[in-house]
Specification:
By secondary structure, the protein is mainly α. The chain has helices at about 10, 15-20, 25-40, 45-55, 60-80. Helix 3 (about 25-40) crosses helix 5 (about 60-80).
């Protein structure tokens, strides 16, 4: 889905630190945000939100949050029911 929405290989290859460094600051902030929201939305700081706001408008931040939340939901739903990925 990420590739369909225009994500580059650098965004999808989060395992490589060098790939993260090549990202624009807005994308790095979005990935940091996703990592924090994965633990708890209550942990999002004003500083992190300011990084997001510097790169994205409020509507885009809502969309980013929606994608994070829906991904979390589907992962938890599928893991709980032991749903195997389809090919």
């Amino acid at each position: 889905m990420a590739r369909q929405k225009g994500a580059t290989d650098a965004i999808q290859d989060r395992a490589g630190g060098a790939a993260l460094e090549r990202l624009e600051p807005g994308w790095r902030a979005a990935l940091e945000y996703a990592d924090i929201v994965h633990v708890s939305g209550h942990l999002v700081t004003d500083d992190l939100y300011a990084k997001l706001r510097a790169a994205w408008d409020e509507g885009q931040i809502v969309e980013i949050t929606l994608v994070i939340g829906m991904t979390e939901y589907f992962n938890r739903f599928n893991d709980s029911l032991r749903v195997e990925p389809t090919r």
